[in-house]
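Ligand-bound model needed. adenosine-5'-triphosphate.
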Amino acid sequence: MTDKPKRKAKADPAPEEPPDELVLPDVIPVIPSGTNVVYPQQLMPVMAIDERDKSAIDEAASSDGKLIGIFSQEDAAGDGEADGARLRQIGTVAAIVRMAKAPDGSVHAILQGRARVRLVAVVDQGPPLHARVEQLTDKNGKDLEAEAVMRDVAEAFVRAANLSDAMPTEIASVVGDITEPAALADFIAANLPLKPEDRYDILAELDIGRRLSNVHSLLIHELEVLEVRNKIQSDVKGELDKRQRDFILREQMKAIQKELGEETSPELSELKERLQKAELPENVQKEADREIERLSQIPAISPEYQVVRTYLEWLADLPWNATTEDQLDIAHAAKVLDEDHYGLDKVKRRILDFLAVLKLKGGETRGPILCFVGPPGTGKTSLGQSIARALGRKFIRVSLGGMRDEAEIRGHRRTYVGAMPGRIIQEIRRAGSANPLMMLDEIDKLGTDFRGDPASALLEVLDPAQNHTFTDHYLDTPFDLSRVFFIATANLPDTIPSPLLDRMEVIELPGYTEHEKLEIGRRYLLPRQLEQNGIPKGALRISEGAIRELIRSYTREAGVRNLERELGTVCRRIARLVAEGKQEQVSVTQDNVSDFLGPPRFRWELASERDEVGVAAGLAATSAGGDVLFVEATSVPGKGNLTLTGKLGDVMQESAQAALTYARSRAGVLGIAPAFFDRSDLHIHVPAGAVPKDGPSAGVTMATALISAITRRPVYKDVAMTGEITLRGKVLPVGAIRDKVLAAHRAGSKRVVLPRDNENDLHDVPDEVKRDLEFIFVEHVDEVLAAALHAEARDDRPRVEQLAVGS
Ligand SMILES: Nc1ncnc2c1ncn2[C@@H]1O[C@H](COP(=O)(O)OP(=O)(O)OP(=O)(O)O)[C@@H](O)[C@H]1O
Ligand SMILES: [Mg+2]
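Prediction:
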């Protein structure tokens, strides 16, 4: 610190200087500014923390001109001592415009550049640093060329300012006001994001023309960078912009179409019209409006267009409010039911009761769902059709047999390719009425698997508390099913899922007796077949005996479906004879039935010709109604093992074991040699081996066959039996007595052995059947044996076997 700074006026201000002329002392305090450069006119905030800078600002602030030198450095990271040495040659003299001291001791100041200065010498290292400086003057001021470049530069800068996020757009308007090329160059350099060297080079350039053109080329470069970046950004944004653009175009298009009076495509307006006519419920209408709106925005060639359109068509086609009017005249209904079906008095009565309730409740079907249970061909489906006819409702049928997928009932969500509503909604659409009679066939044959449980979906369909808001996955909006009259059908109640069974009122349609079949055949099936085959009146005379023969020898069923088919076959044969002109009138009698149908398929008598040892006729309930089931037993030399064959279920196997144990325990009374069981194996077989069988009701039959086989007492072939047995030989009651008795009657049995406790069930058996049969009610197996077995043994086995057992 040898020389103290002196103040000395300088008399030659730069020609471009603002009017208030700069009085520059020889020596001024200096702040090294790292890589920062300040241009004349530029404002720069400074925060001084260290002593060197603070003292420099202090000294300047207290001087007359408040002037301070700002010099950038070769290397910003220098230490205090070398500061002076590494200051760059050209710097700026700036005035302190404002200054404040913060409580933490730092000094904040705003400087404004005044003029370019050259560093003549560092006078002392300070603090503060003092330097001798000399003001510089710009060269080659205003000329035409500079003016032309100015315009280019100003334009380019405005473009750059618009492209760049870093520069405020207002800057662009300031540029227009600058008239001096030197000032313009400085202003732009100050506001462009330049590299430190470039910044310094602009400061150091005193030739105005060159400074401006340097700034120009830097600006052009910057502009290119900005343009490339913008392009990249807009590519990224492109997709978004395109959608926006499309949207705007579409809006415009709509406006144009509206202007032209053709707001929507004819297809769309037709769809709209259909939706209007469908009288959608409010919430559905909203959904429809949304989708219509969407549809109007999707190009018709897009696959989504079809999806949305199909959906809207479904909405339009469904009978949301279209219903048929119920005809609730009970007398009329009774007449229709009688017209279509013979007999079934009990069933018809219950249906009429049901209709009466429906009438009193004003057509509201809420309440139990009817479920018709009975063997095939007993008229369940056709009764449903009759009820629909009587009521004047549309009839639809959904077959549930083998349905495993919930989606079959409830549909697939629209997001699936090719999604469709479930069967319920499909059928409703087909019916075109919201209150049809819907028959849910084979509800006992519903399946379940990994695709969901259709039974639970069905529960929602059938539950009166839920079905007014049944939601199909595809429609995705509730449809009121409470107006539908549901009737389910099943062959057996056992496999109906119990939650479903709980909601239904079961009405049984047991099989028909021979007499009933005869009447049905004569009065209903034959006339229908004659008509269907176009046989002229009087061309066919078919005797009652012939129909009876058809029933007995060509069918064996609880219902009448095969009977109808056989009658159809006869009619077709006759149609041909008549058509060929061979005969004008044909008579079919009991004796010539086989001319039309071939040899008899079933023999009326029981299978065996004579009373056999080890074969007993049991009665079983199957899904086809009652049936006669023959149980065979035989003994062969062995060690007391029991073999069971014929696909017997667990319960049936257990009752076979029980039968055997009973036989062993009664060996003495039954006259069986004590050693018999040690030397013989027993085998029980139930023919029709491929059909699975189960249930306890074959207990008495197996005991009878087994004991017959052991004792060699033959079984009367005209005896049929059913009943469960206990180990001590008690006979317990079993189910489906009516079906079983009818089956025994069909098969030609004369005597039927039944558990005593089932005596009351005979009420259900038609009188004409009861007349033909003798019933033996039993409480104990001994009574069964007494009725079914011959008293005497008949031993016609090979001698070898006799010896083995007898000895
Ligand atoms: N009582 C009856 N009076 C007149 N025709 C009858 C009677 N019972 C059944 N039929 C006729 O028998 C045929 C078979 O009946 P339907 O198809 O209704 O049987 P189903 O009980 O539905 O059998 P499945 O369980 O196999 O579906 C029909 O043509 C039907 O009209
Ligand atoms: Mg049916």
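Confidence is low (pLDDT under 50) at residues 1-19, 78-82, 799-807.
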